[in-house]
Amino acid sequence: MATDTALLVIDMQIGNVAQAYRRDEIVGRLAGMVAEARGAGTPVVFVQHEDDWPTMRPGGADWQFVPELTPAAGELVINKRASDSFYGTPLRQELTARGIKHLVVTGVMTELCIDATCRRATSEGFAVTLVADGHTTEEAPDLTAAQIIAHHNLALKNMAQPDHPIRVKPRAEISF
Using the 8-state DSSP alphabet, how is residue 65 labeled? Predict the structure, then answer.
C-alpha cells in the first residue's frame, strides 16, 4: 500500500473483546495485519476507549489492549470517549500531520465504533478500506453478531462518498 495509508486498530481491549464473536480468529488476523504493516513501514494507529464504566476506566485490567495487539514504542495511541474515533480526539490532526489519506479500519464493536469511525473518516476527507473480516461485535438480542457484521459491511460499502469511498474488502485482498 501507499505511504499515505495507516492501519487503524479500534478498541481491541481486553474488556471489549471478552465476549466478541470469533474473538481469537479476529485477534489473530489483526495481529498478522499489524505485523505486516509494521514490516512494510505502514503506520499503525491504535484507538483506546475510556470512560467511567468500571471496565473502561483508564489503567484497569479490562481497559488494556489485548496482549497480541499492544502498540509498539512510538506508535500513535488515541484515547476516545465516544464511538466516533474522531470525536473530541486529535485523530484527524495526527493523521494529517503524518500525511495519511487512507485508513484501513479494523477493530471491535461493528455497529458502534467501527461504523461511526468509518462514516466520520469519509466526512473528514479520508479514503477508507474496511476489512470485512477484520472487525467484530457481540451477539445482540434480535441479531446475531454475524448478521450485524454482514449488515454493516453492506451498509458501509454502499455509503461511499464520491471522492472518499469506503471499500469493503476481506483481509486476503489487503496487503501493505
Answer: B
Cell numbers describing residue 66: 489485548
Q: What are the b/e assignments for 43-60, b being 16+ CB within 10 Å?
A: bbbbbbbbeeeeebeeee
pTM value surpassing 0.90 = yes
Instruction: State how far the Cα of 82 lies from the Cα of 50, in Å rounded to an integer.
Output: 9
Which three cell numbers, joined as nine digits, stand for 50? 475510556
Interval 149-159: pLDDT, tens: 999 999 999 77
DSSP 8-state code for residue 13:
B
Neighbour-count burial of 7, counting CB atoms closer than 10 A to its CB (0-12 exposed, 13-18 middle, 19+ buried): buried
Please return the burial class of 80, using the count of CB atoms within 10 Å of its CB with bins 0-12, 13-18 and 19+.
buried
Give the strands of the sheet with 102-108, arranged side by side.
76-80, 44-49, 5-10, 102-108, 127-136, 166-169
- The residues near 56 (Cβ < 8 Å, ≥ 6 apart) are 13, 15, 16, 49, 50, 62, 63
Query: Using CA atoms, how far apart are residues 128 and 102, in angstroms rounded to an integer?
Result: 6
The pLDDT > 70 percentage for the chain reads 97
Q: In angstroms, rounded to a whole number, what is the distance separating the alpha carbons of residues 144 and 154?
A: 16
